[in-house]
Amino acid sequence: MPTQPKQEVTQLLQAWHAGDHEALNQLVPLVESELRRLARIHMRGERQGHTLQTSALVNEAYLQLIDWQEVAWQNRAQFFAIASSMMRRVLVAHARQRNSQRRGGNCIRLSLSAAENVSDQTDPDVLALDEALAELEKLDAQRSRIVELKFFGGLEMKEISEVMSIPLRTVYREWESARTWLFMQLSQE
Amino acid sequence: MSSERHQQVMELFDEALERPFAERSAWLDQRCQANGELRQAVEKMLVAHEKCTPAFLEASAWEIEARQLAAADQPLQPGETLAQFTVLSPLGAGAMGDVYLARDTRLDRKVALKVLPTRFTWDASRLRRFEREARSASALNHQNIITIYDFGQAETDSGTRHFIAAEYVEGITLRTRLQDGALPIAEALDIAQQIAAALEAAHAAGIIHRDIKPENVMLRPDGVVKVLDFGIAKLTETKEPDAAALHRSTEQGTVIGTPGYMSPEQVRGQDVDTRTDIFSLGVVLYEMIAGQLPFRGATHADVMVALLERKLTPLGVLVPTVSSALDSLVTQMLKKERQERYAASSELPDTLKQCRLADSTRLRFWPKIKARFNPPSAKYIRAAAWLGAAIALTVIFLYWKNRSQGTLNQYLQSEWRQTSLQFSEKIGGASAISRIHFSPDGRLIVYSFLNDNVSDIWIKEIATGKTKKIFDQAGESFHPIWSPDGMNVAYASTKAGKLGIWAALATGGEPKLLWPVNQKVDLLVRWIKYETGGKIYFESSYNLYALDLNNGKVQPIKLFDKPSSHEFSISPDGEWCAYVESLQGQRHVWVSSLTKEATQQITFGEGSDASPIWFPDSKTLAFSSVRSNLRQTYVVELTTHRIKQITFGNDEFTPAAVKPDGSAIVGTLDRQFANLYSANLITGLEEEQSSDFGLQLFPDLAPESGQIAYCTPLPIRISSGDLFVKTALSAARPVKITSAALNPKWAPNGKEIAFLRATKGKYQIWKINPATQQEQMLSEEGVQLRGWTQVPYNLVASAYNWSPNSQQIAYVGLVEEKNGFKQERINIIESSDGQSRIIPSMRAMPGSLSCPTWSPNGAILAYLNSVKSGQPNFPLTEVIIYEDENERVIYQDKLELRILGWDSKAESLYLVRGSVNGRYNAPQPVQLLRLARTTGESYTIATLPNTYLLSLSLAKNRLHTAYVTRDEGHDQLRVVDLRTGRSRVIPTASDPGSYYSSLTWAPKGNQLFYSKQRSWVEINLLEINR
To answer: In a 3-state reduction of DSSP, which class is residue B837?
Structure first.
């Protein structure tokens, strides 16, 4: 019996959470199709002169991907915490795959100063950010977690505050310092 | 760094951020104590924070990946197929897609296959717009436009891919050619001319390229240039009429086009028009010749800032060998403001060709003329730089150089001041005083004076201002000149019905015929006494001739191919002739030897030069020119090339003659006032509405609010005035809401004002919201305005009108066909989005259209078509009704017609009928007609005597019409009742110098608004300030 995509994603997530690393590789193409759909939304949104809210976009992605009936976790906050970490892996894997497929196999690593391109935003390269975030993890578990939840998980500040059980004001403060630290790391290249 | 140290730094940073900026340093001193390393680490963070924009990490990884995915398309490999095309090899890659050489397997031919990036093809309607544009460009079948064979889409592994199959052009792109550096000027001009030819054809068809750059220009080995990618920029276009666009474009990166080649309006995200392509071509031309871009920067953002703000380094500064004409053309093409930019796509290929020919002639001609002329020195170019590129002199006559060595020119050294000599009689019309000349002793001036269409000759004594008319004889007398001894005045006259050159004593007496003319004499120029005898120089059919007074023989001196006014002026020593020559829409001063084959252009650059006149030294000229906005007077010394502007006011003085001692210049000022008035039709009370100095014309009343909109142009440029809005019948101050406007019309809902704006000989309809002052161009194509009369000021015919629901505007569109033939059509434009709908014309005989007039319910449109032809029964004016998508002629007339408007039920149309014989401002009997819409039956309501045909204005209640008559030399306002045909006089103060014009009704019908004009000519002196 063919599994529905939603069930499949949820099962893969649970398998991955249970220690099955192969589940990640199977997740990538599923996430990719969702990313393609998002890409279309994104392009239309951009043309109309406004970009979609990040959290709305990502929440929608989760809704598309995950069969909430099957989610065995205790609450949504806990799920997000785990999902963010997982999505980070999936997205980084996706970014790596995308880069390797690029023309000539060249990985164009956008350093921030070179990111000034007429049609590109000053987006950090996802791979570069993942590496910098790994550095931050070694020094600062709490701040790196905030970044992971926000940047990879797409959580809002309030949700981060709930998931991590820290005051909202602290989330804002530490997000700002973490963001600055990462910016410093990336622009040193 | 340890984790503890990191935590310490982060916490200090968090705290520092919460302190005011000014206190941070002291606070850090306190917190870090002597720990310099800690402090440094925190400060480093603070510096990074300043640089880190709020947008950093704002987008989630999801968004970034989704966007990257959207942007990444997989390249095709050789052998891969897309529909019937097999990829052979990649040809290039660009932002707008990868291009492959491919084989069309069905037709077995090579094509260039462009695969569009997926991110530009999500939007089907955008794709269709691009396709339509590209197809129509291709359909022009122009030698310089690439032919598109096919548009299509095909499924691939990575989704649907859209592609364009086009003619495969063997050759290189201009970009490749430019990699070897700048091109020879002649080659650059040849390429630019071919690009311009492509643009000319596309623009004539209403297609804008939007992305002219070297990558989009192919050079074939045989020299043919092909322009690629017409309309492709439509795929990425975002319309952002607001000021936020610039911010957006740099912050979020949605700017389309290629930085460096973009026009300022593209950078700003504004609507583009044909002038955008001209700008981009200007950049390409500049780059081809200079080897560098005119506006450069390290980053795209810097380039865009440079485009918007940095002043252009003239091409001539980088490449001194370019001609001034080319230099100024490029400067014109690169004007940041569209209104100022060279805009005539249709003339550009020719202009470039002329530049190219001039360039090559110059190169060939130079060695030959070098013996007689000195080439321009670099020193001179710098010396003339104070006038910018406006006026430049190149070559000088050795003759003058030899004569002037060591002397200073008093005319250039001097300061000049303007003094008024007199007010002439209040007379109608401009240039009623002309051809002023000083007597050799400088005591008297003589001039032609035109009054009531009869020209006489008058003499005035400067010291006393005493004036007398001489030679009071039957027939007209024109263009007096003095005999060298000052005893006689020679003039052209039609005495006894025959044209001849006559002379008479200045003191009076019987004139004698010097020479019976058997050719037309347009203008006497100067009487010179040579050792061999006297000669009178005169102009005939734009050529210069000399009459030898010894033998009566006429000798041609300067003959021209083109008929255009040359304003010849002979130097006092009788050796030189200065004149004005028109080239490419510009008028420049030239000087030519009367005895030798030597001719030289004196002024260059963009401008309209006029009336060159000589100083007594025969090596200095005064002339007037419109170089910026207003006509001013300049002095140019031909030996040193120095130029001095000597008038600076708003007067627009027209110099006519230099006093023989060189101490003064006499000239004329056309003085005009036209102020807004209202007349209460019940009480007869006339009230001044606006009495600012200058002209206030073409008032229009808002339907409800009682706001009045009007324009305030300068007398010589009616087409471009400021647009003011003011509350009528109040002391409220007028508010200027925009400039460069003509003929404002309130939308019937009173929310917006439409107006015409002239840009390089083309009118376009704009609209403005008077409250927000936001304006928008509605018609990209030209609007045919039939012009206006000046005394009094009336538009010759209405060119556009709002629909009653304020949603649409009907106008007379002017379409320039490829062959240069201009055709008119009635267009309807949606006021909200500028989308044009064209009335399908069934006219077999193309004519002049005018007066598009909506019925009160907006369902029917009436307009006029005037057909001029050599056949019998012509000229003919037709009244055409457009109803239920059908056009029909309901009435024809051999006389001139104007539509006044519909009756309230749209059952009949009110028309005005008269015989103008080429003079729209001549009062005449005018018939007021009512025309039945269904049958075309006409009924004469009234015949109005001595009426200005263009003055009639229908009241908003559609029951009355106001008009102006001229009785016994006075203008008079009248109102006719359309039901009875009875007229009554509106008592207003009027004198012979007053003219009433541009009548418009208040909504309630109890007030009439109009412009009351006074005009006269003033003779002024410009004197050296001693």
So the answer is: strand
Interface list for A 55-114 with B (CB within 8 A): 55, 57-58, 61, 87-88, 91, 94-95, 98, 101-103, 112
Which H or E element spans position A134? Answer: helix A126-139
* B192-213: pLDDT as tens digits: 999 999 999 888 888 888 889 9
Nearest of B291, B299, B307, B257 to residue B277 by alpha carbon: B257
* Alpha carbon of A30: minimum distance to chain B alpha carbons (Å): 13
pTM of whole model > 0.90?
no
Residue B342, classed as helix, strand or coil, is coil
**CB-CB neighbors (< 8 A) of A150 in chain B:** 57, 60
Q: Which among A42, A94, A112 has CB closest to B67?
A: A42
Q: Most B CBs within 10 Å: which of A177, A186, A188, A189, as the mutation test of the B interface?
A: A177
- The candidate with the shortest Cα–Cα distance to A30, out of A45, A19, A47, A15, is A15
The whole-chain average pLDDT of chain B stands at 80
- The β-bridge partners of B527 are B536
Residue of A35, A177, A178 lying closest to B66 (CB–CB): A35
Do B63 and A42 make contact, defined as CB atoms within 8 angstroms? yes
Q: Which residues pair with B939 in a beta bridge?
A: B930
Q: Reply yes or no: is the peptide bond before residue B90 cis, omega within 30 of 0.
A: no
Please give the average per-residue pLDDT across A115-132, as a whole number. 61
Residues of chain A neighbouring B65 (CB-CB closer than 8 A) = 35, 91, 94-95, 98, 126
Q: Which residues of B65-107 form beta strands (DSSP E)? A: 81-82, 85-94, 97-104
**Peptide bond preceding B792 in cis form (omega within 30 of 0):** yes
φ, ψ for residue B42, nearest 5 deg: -65, -45
Rounded-to-integer distance, Cα B1022 and Cα B789, Å: 31
A145 at interface of B, judged by CB pairs closer than 8 A: no
What are the pLDDT digits (tens) for B177-194?
Answer: 888 788 888 889 989 999
Token representation of residue B319: 């490449």
B69 vs A contacts (CB less than 8 Å): 32, 35-36, 39, 98
pLDDT at A38 (0 to 100):
65
In the sheet that holds B81-82, the strands lie side by side as: B81-82, B85-94, B97-104, B109-115, B159-167, B148-156
Q: How far, CA to CA in Å, does B225 sit from each of B165, B191, B279, B679, B978?
A: 19, 6, 19, 64, 63
- Give the dihedral of Cα atoms A100, A104, A107, A113; nearest 10 deg: -150
Q: What residue type is assigned to position B842 of the chain?
A: M
**Of the listed ranges B103-107, B615-619, B818-822, the one predicted with least confidence:** B818-822
Residues in chain A: 189
Q: Distance (Å, rounded) from C-alpha B17 to C-alpha B49?
A: 9
Q: Do B625 and B610 meet the contact criterion of CB atoms below 8 Å apart?
A: yes
Task: Quickly list DSSP for B924-959.
Answer: EEEEEEEEETTT--EEEEEEEEEE-GGG-EE-TTSS
Q: How far is CA B7 from CA A133, B4, B24, B35, B332, in A?
A: 15, 5, 19, 15, 61
pLDDT in tens, B931-970: 999 998 999 999 999 999 999 999 988 999 999 998 877 8
> What pLDDT score was predicted for residue B394?
30
Bigger pLDDT: B596 or B941? B941
Name the percent of chain B in helix, strand, coil, to the closest 5.
20, 40, 40
